[in-house]
Design a protein that fits this description.
It is a single chain. Helix content is 51%, strand content 4%. It has 4 helices and 2 strands; from the N terminus they run ααααββ. α1 (9-26) packs across α2.
Length: 168
């Protein structure tokens, strides 16, 4: 990705990522510190985007930003977090409407991670709203389920409700 031949947004992004990789190679293990990338300027020397910043504001890739700022240790923790979350997800059929909201949250995270930076305010505002909706809808669905009846012998399951080991 040669910055001088950049002619569209996609090529510019590839040039930005090339610059980020160059910066990562300068200090790959520990990174350059939080918020350091925007201070590393570079100007596109010629071509259609001449005079513009090579990497304006942020690396336009969350994973690369974490690596450039926190080093391989930060990148490894980020990757491990994604893997651990992925293996903790329940079956989609058990989630109902909250599952769709969780999928929207995951989709947002994926799209944003390839386009914007980690410290983007509106990203975290949208994620917070989706997470709150996930919790509220989940609680609403739980309130709509039939509840077990309390008797002197313990809990008696409601009609159509499975008895779990916890209720016995």
């Amino acid at each position: 990705a040669d910055p001088a031949t950049v002619s569209n947004s996609i090529d510019w992004r590839l040039a930005i990522w090339q610059r980020v990789i160059e910066v990562i190679q300068q200090n790959p293990m520990t990174g350059h510190g939080l918020g350091a990338f925007p201070t590393m300027e570079g100007i596109i020397p010629s071509g259609e985007f001449a005079g513009r910043l090579l990497a304006p504001n942020h690396p336009h890739n969350m994973a690369l930003q974490i690596w450039v700022e926190l080093g391989v240790f930060g990148a490894a923790i980020f990757a491990l977090m994604i893997i651990l979350i992925s293996f903790r997800l329940p079956e989609p059929s058990k989630l109902g409407v909250p599952g769709f909201l969780a999928a929207a949250l995951a989709g947002q995270f994926l799209a944003i991670s390839l386009s914007f930076d980690l410290w983007n305010d509106w990203l975290w505002a949208c994620a917070g709203i989706l997470a709150a909706m996930f919790v509220v809808v989940g609680r609403t669905e739980a309130d709509d389920e039939p509840q077990p009846e309390r008797t002197s012998e313990g809990l008696k399951p409601a009609v159509g409700q499975k008895v779990t080991a916890y209720q016995r």
